Amino acid sequence: MLNCGDKVMNIYNCKHYFPNLLVISIALIPMAIGIYYLFNYQNPFAKEPAKVVRDGIVFLGIGVIFFTIYVASFVDNYINVFIPGKNGQLEYVEGLVTDLSPSDFREHGADEFSVNNVRFIISNNPLSPGYNRTAANGGVISSNGMSVKIGYVEYKNHLYIMCINVLDDQTIRQGTKTGDGSPVP
What we know:
By secondary structure, this protein is an alpha+beta fold. Helix content is 34%, strand content 25%. It has 2 domains: 9-17 and 90-173, CATH 2.40.50; 21-86.
């Protein structure tokens, strides 16, 4: 069971990891164009049917390549990050947030911070499993001195945050937000 505990406020638990439909659609669009070209190569308005077939193969190939890369990346993250996190094979660190370096960007950029000399990097990347909301986007880790307990999985030299607990009432009263950006009640 994925849980950092219940000392004060369990702010974030990674409960699911779904494929990103936008990325899949970006791969499916050239595939659909390629299939359309291949099935319509005998179109009477096409001046060069061989060029239509070639273009269809190119579009289909580009779509298949993007789709394959995305699916391979998704399956890799699912097997090596999400499943171990879901099964409770987490490493934990507890302490105060230090060295917080928030990004200045609303949508891009990354927040960096440490808890007991364990360095974390959070970005707004929806393709990555685990916690991915920066302070500029209403993220939980918003200031130095917050007392937290973080459960994480390390994979390919990156620490994926799978659960976050805020450990002191003072931090919660100062306006810390939940993972969905709403204030903690």
